[in-house]
Amino acid sequence: xxxxxxxxxxxxxxxxxxxxxxxxxxxxxxxxxxxxxxxxxxxxxxxxxxxxxxxxxxxxxxxxxxxxxxxxxxxxxxxxxxxxxxxxxxxxxxxxxxxxxxxxxxxxxxxxxxxxxxxxxxxxxxxxxxxxxxxxxxxxxxxxxxxxxxxxxxxxxxxxxxxxxxxxxxxxxxxxxxxxxxxxxxxxxxxxxxxxxxxxxxxxxxxxxxxxxxxxxxxxxxxxxxxxxxxxxxxxxxxxxxxxxxxxxxxxxxxxxxxxxxxxxxxxxxxxxxxxxxxxxxxxxxxxxxxxxxxxxxxxxxxxxxxxxxxxxxxxxxxxxxxxxxxxxxxxxxxxxxxxxxxxxxxxxxxxxxxxxxxxxxxxxxxxxxxxxxxxxxxxxxxxxxxxxxxxxxxxxxxxxxxxxxxxxxxxxxxxxxxxxxxxxxxxxxxxxxxxxxxxxxxxxxxxxxxxxxxxxxxxxxxxxxxxxxxxxxxxxxxxxxxxxxxxxxxxxxxxxxxxxxxxxxxxxxx
Length: 511
Known about the structure:
CATH class of the largest domain: Alpha Beta
CATH architecture of the largest domain: 3-Layer(aba) Sandwich
Shape: globular
Number of helices: 15
Radius of gyration: 25 Å
CATH topology of the largest domain: D-Maltodextrin-Binding Protein, domain 2
Largest sheet: 6 strands, mixed
Strand content: 15-25%
Oligomer: single chain
Number of strands: 23
């Protein structure tokens, strides 16, 4: 049965209306003859803009008032942000589907005009009402911003996104944390329906430095970035139509996230973040927080990893590298001629795979966006006073960077002279590899972790007998290149998120 008319309800905020229309476009792409009536309603959470969300007595402050209209048949569908939903929505309604999920991560904005003040006072004031963000971001801010900060102060803020951003810009506060999906949706809003949003928001963003906070240090609120489509539980005809629009993978990930939160009791008062990401090698689970009893926890793993080596019998003298200091196959010599080219770069996105790819004391103009492969590189560059905008979190440059709403700059990769081709085609060679002698007895090793395909190729050319040993590496270009080199032997190649993850599993197997 195809419906002639469907009544879609959302909250009144610009973002909520944009999300409702996002659903409408997807529905009409499949069923163009349906007439959609969009309705809005204020909720108790919209009316009370003083009480921090974590202190409100009811978890469903943005959803329960809408659900009442659905149960009373004043509408057919409600469009929610998944993260606003309480864990228990009751039996009269259900979340039928979710659409393709937007970015799960948070954005941190810092006012450019406040940088000198932050440096002088060595303290920073951040607007956020989220216990999760406050818990996760304090150490991130002290360790990954390019100036010394001794104290992070969090200040509560309420209101819709545009209101909060306006309050932030007009306040004395230094920073503001917000869901990236919200900013993306506002900047991508249909100009015919929302002609002023982008015009209003972009000048405020341009007054700020920004970075996309990685899920490894700041897992999201369960369901962040995803839309929940709620219907009456007995509306089987509508459910059948909507199932054609469902993103099963995203839906499954959100249910897993909410299940993790439920283990700790649930609720927006908790200092808990959990994210599940789907990748080409399975799901990544990132969780971090503190239980109600004050017990901290943090985990980033390949969920249900089928390549578990902790059950194998392994001897310490069979692994390489046993210590990172053993992994020294090359000297890296700076190519001096690159420095002038780097200094001249303007309005580019610069991908940096390791800190040595950016020569010491090299200046990079502030109009450029800096993206790094992992947290260690980010931290080292921040210590050098360089503002880093984000990281691929160890997943490689093929991972979805998803920053098109914030910048359309051309991508440039800084790497070594003989680096294999990759997704980013425009390359500046900043250093040259000079081979070291292999002093360790590699031939007798059985379990390897590789941090670059160049190292793998160098070693295997001299010790071809290790081809059929067990090899591990990260999931990015290194994996792709090693897989190509091994060809038919790539059945012995496995992914681990980091050397430390691999080493910890090895040690468990030895114990």
